[in-house]
User: Which sequence fits this backbone?
């Protein structure tokens, strides 16, 4: 198995949508009802809107043996808008590699705090990576209410 991280490229949009859909429906099903999963990750979506969001967020993309296995982004504020691994590749180091890249990017960009709205399913992974729950939330998505957590992590600032 060869895991490789790279920057987002135009043309990745459909594959990243498939990763998102797989992650929601294959992994989050442990914590959310079928109705909640359908609201969060509907099969039908606005492809142009999805593409525009990804192009704006510029995620890092993880590939295993040349196939896209996950993606994550880091905004200038320190917000992690997307962090998804395909169900088939969960537990194979993809999330750890993406988290490492986010930390590296934060350090080079002078970002001192990471934060995200984290699903119940992803909460143990974020906790393992040093994030703490700041708030429990109930968010409305396409008419369904989903529980999640606002999690954050302060990063060490290197003095030069």
Assistant:
């Amino acid at each position: 198995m060869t895991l490789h991280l790279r920057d987002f490229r135009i043309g990745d949009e459909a594959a990243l949508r498939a990763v998102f859909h797989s992650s929601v429906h294959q992994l989050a099903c442990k914590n959310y009802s079928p109705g909640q999963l359908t609201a969060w990750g509907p099969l039908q979506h606005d492809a142009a809107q999805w593409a525009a969001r990804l192009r704006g967020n510029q995620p890092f993309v993880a590939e295993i043996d040349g196939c896209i296995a996950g993606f994550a982004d880091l905004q200038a504020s320190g917000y992690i808008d997307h962090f998804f691994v395909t169900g088939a590749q969960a537990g194979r180091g993809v999330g750890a590699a993406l988290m490492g890249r986010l930390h590296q990017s934060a350090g080079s960009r002078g970002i001192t705090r990471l934060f995200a709205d984290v699903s119940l399913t992803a909460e143990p992974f974020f906790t393992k990576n040093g994030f703490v729950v700041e708030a429990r939330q109930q968010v409305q998505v396409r008419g369904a209410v989903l529980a999640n957590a606002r999690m954050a992590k302060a990063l060490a600032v290197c003095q030069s």
About this structure: Residues 3-111 form a domain with the Aminopeptidase fold (CATH 3.40.630.30). DSSP finds five helices and eight strands in the chain. The two ends are 38 Å apart (CA to CA).
